[in-house]
Amino acid sequence: MQRLSICIAEDSNVVRAAIQSLLTKSGYFDVVGAVPDGRAALNSCRETHPQLVLLDVSMPEMDGIEAARQISALSPDSVIIMLSSQDDMEVIRDALKAGARDFIRKPIHGPDLIQKILTIYAREGSRRSSTSESLRRKILAFTSSKTGAGTTTIAINSAVALARKLRKKVLVMDLDVLYADASHCLGRKQQPSMAELLLSPDPQRLENIRKFIMETTSGVYLLPGPSTPTPDLIRYSGIEAVIRSVEADYDFVIIDFPHMIDDFWVRILEATDQIFLVVGSDVPSIRSTKVYLENLKKTKIPTRRVKIVYNHVTTDGNVDRKDVQDFINMPVYSEISCDRESVTKAYLSRTPFLLKELTQISRDVETLVEKVFLGRDSI
């Protein structure tokens, strides 16, 4: 029988050693980490990505709840179980919000601990296999293979549609480190941004992240991108943890991605639930999208997670939708009409076009959002 990899985080040396010995001797587990605090657990999981993580709630350096939040972002497939001598319901709720899957109360008899861990892992495995990935539509990435495809415009107006039409609490995260434009599109001045957040102490901690989030007049919340091009900024570790941390506060998190695909960006895309790949109606955009998709297929990201949004950015030399589908070998999930006048006016007035007069392009974005919300995967 293949052993389950597990990381143990417990500040008591005696208790930690006892659990490690118990689990190893049981024959069911391979202990890949046995550490005294949450920060060490995070570092261990970064290296090993264990199937199971056993976290004590009260630990120095970083407590178990914060460790659970960051580990669930770093290693989303790890099943996190909390250990505690308390029965505090608020602590339990916080732990489950942070990504823990269950709670085990200490002290617990050795054989019972083994059985409880195995039962939780079996239950989680069954739940994951029976729950379709397509049902989860919370963290939505909007990206494109090149500039000029209208990604930010569609992302911003989709967020406004979710907030206004469906009355959802929505956060826009601007991760475009070269051309961060979400603040302008939402009518806000560039304030402390993702750049300052990532350089601050404990940037993954939710209460710290909240200080950098602003509410806009459109009803959408915004975590701005850097005010000047900062290509190296995004290389800071912790972006995935920031994404998972804010998830608890919002119904939807919409991320405006730059037009890049490398190992670092792929890791961040893996933290999202759906990827909306915006294709412009010009030949270079269509051609580069095909290359982008070919590169994406080399990653662990399932193709079914990617949705093609065909954006008619111009009426000049438009390519037929069917021809686009045939060329990139993927169906078009949604189509956005060309309306350069509405888009230009919205940009210059720093107001999303969905907040202005109802036009065909507004209806198209609302249709896209309704499909996402209702889980309709076909036209």
Your description of this structure?
- With 379 residues, the chain is an alpha/beta fold.
- The protein folds into two domains: 127 residues, Rossmann fold (3-Layer(aba) Sandwich), CATH 3.40.50.2300; 241 residues, P-loop containing nucleotide triphosphate hydrolases (Rossmann fold, 3-Layer(aba) Sandwich), CATH 3.40.50.
- It contains 15 helices and 13 strands.
- Helix 2 packs parallel to helix 3, helix 3 runs parallel beside helix 4 and helix 3 crosses helix 10.
- The longest helix is centred in the N-terminal third of the chain and has 21 residues.
- It is elongated.
- The N and C termini lie far apart (46 Å).
What does this entry show, briefly?
By secondary structure, the protein is α/β, with parallel strands linked by helices. It has 15 helices and 13 strands.
Which key phrases capture this entry?
elongated; alpha/beta; 18% strand; 8-stranded mixed beta sheet; Rossmann fold; single chain; 379 residues; 5-stranded parallel beta sheet
Largest sheet: 8 strands, mixed
Mean pLDDT: 85
Give the percentage of residues in beta strands.
15-25%
| CATH class annotation of the largest domain | Alpha Beta
Rounded to the nearest angstrom, the radius of gyration is 23 Å
* Termini Cα gap: 46 Å
Q: Give the quaternary arrangement of the chains.
A: single chain
The structural class is: alpha/beta
- pLDDT below 50 for ≥5 consecutive residues: which ranges? 129-135
Q: Which topology of the largest domain does CATH recognise?
A: Rossmann fold
Q: What is the assigned CATH homologous superfamily of the largest domain?
A: P-loop containing nucleotide triphosphate hydrolases
- Output the strand order for the largest sheet: 8-9-7-10-6-11-12-13
Number of strands: 13
CATH architecture of the largest domain: 3-Layer(aba) Sandwich
Which range best describes the helical content: under 10%, 10-25%, 25-40%, 40-55%, 55-70% or over 70%? 40-55%
Q: How many helices?
A: 15
